C-alpha cells in the first residue's frame, strides 16, 4: 500500500469506529469477550503486571486484566470508543492513542495485548514493532484475529452472499488483507520479523449465539466497519438479495434451534528478547 492509501484506509477505519461503539458492543461483545482469558494468559497478564491494552474498544480486555490485579492502561484511536470504555469501567485508565505510534517510553510494560485490533490498522507491522518496543525485556505480547472465513463462518456467510448477489469490489479504501494473520505461517513470520522471540500461534474456539436468523446480517451491517462498509456500498436490490441469502443460510445451519455459529479466533503471541 502507498502512504496515501494507508492514510485513506486509516481515516475510513477511524470514522467508522467513531460512529459505532454502542452497536459494536451490543453485537460483538458476547463473542469477542470469549477470547480474553486466553489472550491475557498468553501475555502473562497477572496481578501486579503493567498491562497495555491496545485498540481497547469497549474495554473487555482491560476490565478482565484489572480484575486479575494488573495495572492496566487502555488506548483506542476513536474518542467515542474511549468515552464508551470510560463510562463502562470508570476505574481504568483509558486514553486516545495510536497503535502504530504508541505514546509510551521503551520497555514500559510487562504485557501488551490487542483483541482483534490488528485487522483494522493501516500498518499492522508497525503496530507489532511498537508493541515490542514498549515491552520490557522478557515481556510478552498477545494478539487475536479472526480465523479465515471458512472457519469463522459468520464472515464466510456474509462474504459468500455478497460475492454471489452483489460485488466485493465496492469502492472501499484499499487496506491490508483482513485475514492475513489467520494464516499460521504468515502470523509466525510477522511476529519473527517484528523481533519477537518464541512466537506461538493457535486457534481459540468461539461460538456466536445469535438472537435470530436476521441478527448476523444486521450486526455485520451496523456494527462493523469494513464488512459493514461493503454491505452499505451495495445497490438496494443487491443488499436485499444479500440479506435474504444470509438469513436463509443461518436458518439452514440453525435448524430448529437458535443460531450458534462457529467463530474461532487465532491467537498470536511472542516475547521480547532479554
Brief write-up:
The protein contains eleven helices and nine strands. It has helices at 3-19, 21-32, 36-42, 60-67, 79-88, 124-134, 153-165, 184-194, 215-222, 226-232, 236-254, and strands at residues 50-54, 71-76, 93-96, 109-115, 135-146, 197-204, 207-209, 260-262, 265-271.
What report would you give on this structure?
It is a single chain. Helix 3 packs across helix 4 (60-67), helix 9 (215-222) crosses helix 10 and helix 9 packs across helix 11. Helices cover 45% and strands 20% of the residues. The chain is of the alpha/beta class and 274 residues long. The strands form two sheets. Strands 3-2-1-4-5-9-6 form a seven-stranded mixed beta sheet, with helices on both faces. It has a two-stranded antiparallel sheet with strand order 7-8. The model has no long low-confidence stretch (mean pLDDT 96). The two termini are 33 Å apart. Helix 4 (60-67) links the parallel strand 1 and strand 2 (71-76).
